Amino acid sequence: MIVLDNTPGASIPGPATCTPWVVVVLAGELDFAASHALDVLDVAVRAHPGAHILVDLSDVTFLDHTALFAFALAKSRAEAQGGVLSLHGASVFALKLLEIWHLEPASSEPPVGGDAA
């Protein structure tokens, strides 16, 4: 799991009014056993009020209600602070769960531009 502040001017899609960009890359199984790892979302939102938090799910192999709750909480907090939380790169399985929880991702494709590694 990596948290990166993206450099200004990167070509990641999203509203131009939200700055700075914060990219959170999650990988592996996001379940109750990994709940401590999901704290990074809360940290990113609280540390960057008004930012666009982009969560890259491209390397996530499994997620359960623990991850969904963390996404919902982070999204709510980001919006309350004038920011945005968007999910990118979700698998077909994850897309169905995100849809049920009304957390539709901005895209099922990984972010374009702005190297996150």
Automatic annotation (TrEMBL):
CDD domains: STAS_anti-anti-sigma_factors
Highest taxon, organism lineage: Bacteria
Record-annotated STAS domain positions: 22-87
Membrane-traversing stretches: none
InterPro entries given in the database record: MlaB-like_STAS, STAS_dom, STAS_dom_sf
UniProt-listed Gene3D superfamilies: STAS domain (3.30.750.24)
Protein name (Swiss-Prot/TrEMBL): STAS domain-containing protein
